[in-house]
Write a structure and sequence with these properties.
Layout (H helix, E strand, L loop, with lengths): L2 H19 L5 E8 L10 H14 L3 E2 L2 E9 L4 H14 L4 E4 L3 H12 L4 E4 L16 E3 L4 H14 L4 E7 L2 H16 L3 E8 L7 H10 L3 E5 L2 H13 L8 E4 L4 H7 L1 H4 L3 E4 L7 H14 L7 H20 L4 H10 L2 E3 L3 E5 L5 E2 L2 E6 L12 E7 L1 H4 L9 H4 L2
Parallel strand pairs: 1-3, 1-4, 4-5, 5-6, 7-8, 7-9, 9-10
Antiparallel strand pairs: 2-3, 11-15, 12-13, 13-14, 15-16
Helix pairs in contact: 2-12, 3-4, 5-6, 8-9, 12-13
Length: 404
Amino acid sequence: MTKTGALALGILVLAAYAAQAQISDNVVRIGVLNDQSGVFADSTGPGSVVAAKMAAADFGDKVAGARIEIISADHLNKPDVGSSIAREWFDEKGVDAIADLGNSAVALAVQEVAKTRNKAILLSAGGSTAFTGKACTPITVQWTYDTWASANAIAAPLVKSGKDTWFFITADYTFGHDLESSSRSIVEASGGKVVGDVMHPLNTADFASFVLQAQASKAKVVAFANGGDDTLRGIKQAHEFQLDKSGQVIAGLSALIGDVHALGLEAAQGLFVAEPFYWDLYDQTRKWAERWSKLDGHNRMPGMMQAGVYSVIMDYLRAVAATKSDAGKTVVDEMKKTPVNDPLFGHVSVRPDGRAIHNFYQFQVKSPAESKGPWDHYKLVATVPPDQAFRPMSEGGCPMVASK
C-alpha cells in the first residue's frame, strides 16, 4: 500500500471511530421508567425522578459537550406498557438509557427492547437475580440490590448471632418463593435450621393463623417473605400477638424504610431489615437525603432505590464522559472497568455479569424511645462487605461469564 493509501485508510478509521464516539443528537437523554402511581410509587416513582434530576444537575447538566436531559413515564407495572414506552423512547425520542424500572417482569421486557438497540439499562429497583444470571446482558447494570443480597444480609448475621432457628411466612407466588428459597439456603449454609413455613395468598387480610403457627414453632426468627401491603399487615399482626415478648424476633426480608414509617415504630420496633443505603448512615448520606427531601416536597426521606437511581446515573455519566459515547455496551463496559467511591454507597465496582457490588447493611428498627425524631428509624447491627454481600458470580449462570 502506498503512503497516500495508508494515510487515507488511517483517516477513514479515525473518522469511523469519531463517529462511533460521538453523542447522538448532542443530548444524553435518560428515561426514568417506573411505577409512578401504584403500589411501588412511594419507594420509586416520582422520588426516583427527583434523584435522577439531582444527578444531572450535580454533573453540571452537560457531559462530553452534550446536554443531559431527564424524562419519565409510568409503566403501570405492565410489561407490555413498559416495552412499548421503551420502543417509543429509543426509536422516536432519542433516549440513550433507561433507569430504575422496578417490577422485574417489566424490567426484563424493557431489557429485551434495549438489547436490540444497544441502549443502557440502569437498574435500581429491579430485584431479580436473573439480571446477573441467565438473563444477563452487556448493556445492563444492576446497581442497588437483589433478592439474594437482601436475604443474605439478614440471614447470615442473625444465624451467626445465635438466632439459628427460622420459620417463614411466605407469599405464595414467585417473588415470595424466591425470597424464602434464598433465605433458606443461606440459613442452612450458615449453620441454622428452618423449623417450618407456611404459604399465604397474595393480598391476605388476616395473618392470625400464620402468626400463631410461627409462634407455636418456637423459632427464634419469624421471617416474612412477602412484600407491599402483605408485609405491613403481617408485621403489624405479629406485633399484636406479641411475638417479640415471647423472645422471637421478626425479619422483614423485603421491608423498606417506607414500610417501617407506614407501620410506625410502636408496631415495627425490633424488626430486622437489610438495605444497602440508609439516609442517616453518615454525613454524605444525610446531606444528600436532606437535599432530596426538600426537592421531593413530601416531608419524607429517600429509600435505597431512589438513592440507587442517583448513584447509577452519576456513574453512567462518568462513563459517558470517559468514552465520549452514548452506545450502551461501550458505556457499560467503562462502568465495569472503573470502580468508584460513591457518596451514597461507598466503594462500588461493577462485575462482568453487571452486578454492582458494595456494602450491604443489617438494621434493626428502633423503639419509639430510641428514636430522636421523624425518620430516625434504624440502628446499624451488621455490615456485610461487598465480596460477601452478593451472590458469587460463579453461581449465577450468566452466559457472558460462562463463555469466558
